[in-house]
Amino acid sequence: MTGGNLLTDHPALYEARFPAPERLAARWTEDCLRRHGAGPRVLDMGCGTGRDAAHLHGAGRTVTGADLSETMLAHARAHHPGPRYVRADLHGFDLGSFDAVVCLDSSLLYCHTNDQLDGFLASCRHALTPGGLLVAELRNGAYFLGRTDLLDRPAVDAFTWQGRTYRSRTTLTVDRTAQLLRRTRVWTTDDGSPPLPQHSAWRLLFPHELRHFLAAHGFEVLELHDGPGPRTEPPWQAGEPPGTTTDGDRLHLVARLHTH
Ligand SMILES: C[S@@+](CC[C@H](N)C(=O)[O-])C[C@H]1O[C@@H](n2cnc3c(N)ncnc32)[C@H](O)[C@@H]1O
């Protein structure tokens, strides 16, 4: 195996590791957009392989998918056509005018610092028409208050792709000073390659902290809850209303940019 980020460097492997045959995240997003009467132009920030962007395109929206990874974007253009795909950094971007910005599977938490969060929300505000929506789905920092179940022992996983078996051992730790959840994932394969360690981190963002950032940038929170959502257990099903608590490990946000 070579260095870099195995999954973002190999988008097909990412899709094999995280199959989403029912496109639940995209369907949940489309449900939020419809329920709150969003216009057609959608920006998917941190679009990854483009699966969700392409589903939203198929639902009749005019979609731009943006990601920092050129490899992800090349895969998206080849395998999930329809949307326009562009390279952008969610810490600060200027990609035109939209009726909604969506940010799925914790992409928003790649804003590690307050300045990066401010940069993201200022860019969203600039991108959105008055009354435009921000729809996000992310880990809940508050889940880790008094709970260690995700921290106590490594998560071990294995899957086979193109005849080769990949094993991963994932350890999560809390960095209280940086307010980050740090992940170390060590990959091994059965082809004799040396183990490949990879490091990433997400901001540990708390629901009231998120509300404060949103208010400061001119957003009204319409929904903020821990499920049901596309990555909750049990997962969201069409027609289910939003929840009312923020205790679980995923947060679901719908916020509207004030019209004045
Ligand atoms: C966990 S994946 C989520 C992909 C997709 N939204 C999904 O739900 O399948 C996170 C994505 O964020 C991208 N990313 C990481 N940091 C970024 C940044 N600063 N700006 C834009 N994209 C970023 C990665 O390249 C990756 O494709």
Q: Major sheet: size, sense and barrel closure? A: 7 strands, mixed
The portion of residues forming beta strands comes to 25-35%
The average pLDDT value, as a whole number, equals 94
The number of distinct β-strands equals 11
Straight-line N-to-C gap? 53 Å
Associated small molecules = S-adenosylmethionine
Which topology of the largest domain does CATH recognise? Rossmann fold
The low-confidence runs, each spanning 5 or more residues with pLDDT under 50, are: none
CATH architecture of the largest domain, by name, is: 3-Layer(aba) Sandwich
Approximate helicity band: 25-40%
Radius of gyration: 18 Å
Q: What is the N-to-C order of secondary-structure elements (H for helix, E for strand)?
A: HHHEHEHEEHEEEEEHEE
CATH class of the largest domain: Alpha Beta
Name its key features.
alpha/beta, binds S-adenosylmethionine, 25% helix, 260 residues, 33% strand, transferase, Rossmann fold, 4-stranded antiparallel β-sheet, Methyltransf_25, Pantoate--beta-alanine Ligase, Chain: A,domain 2
Q: Can you walk through the features of this model?
A:
By secondary structure, the chain is α/β, with parallel strands linked by helices. It folds into 2 domains: 6-140 and 206-257, Vaccinia Virus protein VP39 (Rossmann fold); 144-202, Pantoate--beta-alanine Ligase, Chain: A,domain 2 (2-Layer Sandwich), CATH 3.30.1300.30. It is built from 7 helices and 11 strands. The protein has helices spanning 6-9, 11-17, 24-35, 51-58, 70-79, 114-127, 207-216, and strands at residues 41-45, 62-67, 84-87, 98-103, 128-139, 155-161, 164-175, 180-189, 196-203, 219-225, 250-257. Strand 1, helix 4 (51-58) and strand 2 (62-67) form a beta-alpha-beta unit. Helix 3 (24-35) crosses helix 4. The protein is globular and about 60 Å long. The protein starts with 5 loop residues before the first helix and ends with a strand. The site of S-adenosylmethionine (SAM) has 17 residues, from loops. Residues 42-132 form the Methyltransferase domain.
